[in-house]
Write a structure and sequence with these properties.
This protein is α/β, with parallel strands linked by helices and 174 residues long. The protein has helices spanning 49-61, 86-94, 133-142, 151-162, 166-173, and strands at residues 2-8, 15-22, 30-38, 69-73, 98-102, 113-115, 124-129. A seven-stranded mixed β-sheet has the order 3-2-1-4-5-7-6, sandwiched between helices.
Length: 174
C-alpha cells in the first residue's frame, strides 16, 4: 500500500488530514481515499511543524495495513546535516520510507533535489528517509499526473481542504 497525505487547518480549528491510497508507487492505481478530523492541534511553532502535522497523519493512516511508502507535502529533513522535518518524524512513526515533496524552497534545505514535472519550469523539492533521495526523485518524476504536483498529492490537498470525497465534490460543483 502506498499513501500520499496532506493536512489542512480549517478556520474553525483543528486539522483535517487526507490520504490517497494506491497499489503502486506511481499512484496510477488508486485504491481509496481517507479523511480524518483532529479537533485540537498544537499551536504553530517555527521549526516544530511536525508537532501539528503528525497527529492528523497518525489519525488518517490509522488502520491502513501493509503501508510500504508514504509521500508527504513538505520536507523530510531541513538541512544537509539531517535536522528532522515532518518526513523524518513520519518515517520514525510509521516505520516506512517517506518521500517529502515540497512546493517551495526552504533556505537551509540545499540538499533537496529539484524535480521538474509537466510543463512547469518551477521545481518541486524532494527529500527522503528510508530510501535514497535519487530514487525518491525518480519516483516523484514518474508519479501519475501531467501537472507540476503529482495527482495523488493534488487530490490529498483537495480532500484535506474540503473534507469531501470526489463524489460529493462533483455533485456540489455541477
Amino acid at each position: 500500500m502506498y499513501a500520499a497525505a496532506d493536512v489542512h487547518y480549517p478556520a474553525g480549528g483543528g486539522a483535517r488530514a487526507a490520504a490517497v491510497l494506491a497499489a503502486d508507487p506511481a499512484f496510477s492505481a488508486v485504491l481509496g481515499e481517507r479523511i480524518a478530523m483532529v479537533p485540537e492541534v498544537a499551536a504553530y511553532r517555527p521549526g516544530e511543524f511536525f508537532a501539528r502535522e503528525l497527529p492528523p497523519l497518525r489519525a488518517v493512516l490509522s488502520g491502513v495495513s501493509g503501508l510500504v511508502l508514504l509521500v508527504v507535502d513538505g520536507y523530510v529533513d531541513l538541512d544537509p546535516a539531517g535536522r528532522p522535518g515532518l518526513g523524518a518524524y513520519a518515517h520514525a512513526e510509521f516505520g516506512v520510507p517517506v518521500i517529502g515533496v515540497a512546493k517551495t524552497a526552504f533556505r537551509t534545505a540545499s540538499h533537496a533535489l529539484p524535480v521538474l514535472r509537466g510543463r512547469s519550469g518551477r521545481p518541486l523539492f524532494v527529500t527522503a528517509a528510508g530510501m535514497g533521495v535519487d530514487e525518491a526523485a525518480a519516483l516523484v518524476r514518474e508519479m501519475a499526473g501531467r501537472f507540476r504536483l503529482p495527482d495523488a498529492l493534488r487530490r490529498a490537498d483537495a480532500l484535506a481542504r474540503t473534507g469531501r470525497p470526489a463524489e460529493q465534490q462533483e455533485r456540489t460543483a455541477g
